[in-house]
Amino acid sequence: MFDSLGAFVPGGNMTFEGAEKGPLKGFGFAVKDIYDLEGYVTGYGNPDWQSRRRPSKKHAAVVQKLLDAGAMIIGKTITDEFASSLDGQNYHYGTPANPEAPGRIPGGSSSGSASAVAGGLVDFALGSDTGGSIRIPGSYCGLFGLRPTHDRISKEGVLPLADSFDTVGWFARDAWLLNLVGEVLMDAKADQEAMPEKLLVAVDAFDMLDEKSRAALKPHLERLEQRLGKAEYITLNPENYHAIGFDAQASQGLQGLATLFQIAQGREVMDTHGAWLDRVKPKMGPEIQQRMDWRKTITDEQASDALEKRALFKARMKALIPNKSIVCLPSAPGIAPRINEDPDVLNAHRSKILSLTSASGLAGNPQITMPLATVDGCPLGLSLMGPHGSDLELLAFAESFCSTEDEQQSLSPF
């Protein structure tokens, strides 16, 4: 297959046939280069890592499940180094194209998977989401994507970044296919008795958007209210900071959640990879090197404090999002930045991203991004977050909601 988008790793156009029958027969998918494929080295986006690994002896569990359901592997896609960025620009292998926003980044770290799906090279693709690596590329590239409940889907045969945050995730251009893949991976269908009935709107998340982005998402928020009734307005950042150990002035609202995420996740990254990084000293892109160097500075006291605050925040989120409810929030703080954007601007943008994405990462909640809006001709996603274990209900709700929206748009005289 000709890779016109730069989405696949060098030599990544391998294929594996799926089972002769199954619900995914006839669909082709790509696999982010953190998933084991039998007979191939899992490269993790870094040549020094790849050169020191042996070919995998078997497929990752989630990959095997998709093959058993009839889907066909069409290739292995580029990831940011060590799945450790949200931009999608790999220092060694380049930046996969964003077919829906040419000249702009695809988002990371599941950059190649998002690019391949958005460009029609595959029907769906596996990515992963630790701090936003499904939700951000999904928003930037105009795709549906799910970050599932933490540990809902097996990570056997998947390279870890920070295990208590890492999740298997996937992209599709259509909500029904995203849902079908979810039903296969979770061996179940949505419980109709547990479907969302209450809408919560995270006002502090929407406050992060500029006027254009808020205006673009507003009609879809109104349609959600038509479906579920008048929304209840909430804040993701703790209303009583001291109740979960935050200093009210130091927390800076959602930015405080981003800081908490960075410390808790950063320590896990070092616990997992620190010794290897110190021993091998792999060549990394400047952004990734800087991030790894900062993670080494996290003290035991900071890490311990972050774990305590995370546990309190997780309990708060459980109480905030009851069963049969969903939280609506933007998937990203804006459209994809340009490829040649100033690094300082990208870093500031990343900080805003983490302020939006950290809540579900810290709490382990499922979150789906839907490609509902455009700003200046570029995609902008709207997200729904549910309580733990509501993955299939989120997927089914999104399929129903978006199919209805498509029908309404097709009937519109405008």
Q: What's the level 1 CATH class of the domain at 28-186? A: Alpha Beta
- Specify the structural class: alpha/beta
Our count of helices gives 13
Q: Based on CA inertia axes, which overall geometry fits?
A: globular
The CATH superfamily name of the domain at 28-186 is Amidase signature (AS) domain
Report the biggest beta sheet as strand number plus sense, adding barrel if it closes: 10 strands, mixed
Q: What spatial order of strands do you see in the largest sheet?
A: 2-1-3-5-4-9-10-8-6-7
Could you please say which CATH topology of the domain at 28-186 applies here? Amidase signature (AS) enzymes
Mean pLDDT comes to: 94
Number of strands: 10
Low-confidence runs:
240-251, 410-414
Which band does the percent of strand residues land in? 5-15%
Element order: H for helix, E for strand? EHHEHEHEEHEHHEHHHHEHEEH
**What Rg is obtained from the alpha carbons, in whole angstroms?**
20 Å
User: What is the CATH-assigned architecture of the domain at 28-186?
Assistant: Alpha-Beta Complex
Provide the helix percentage.
40-55%
Distance between the termini: 39 Å
InterPro entries: Amidase_CS, Amidase_dom, AS_sf
Protein name: Amidase domain-containing protein
Domain Amidase: 18-395
Organism: Kiloniella litopenaei
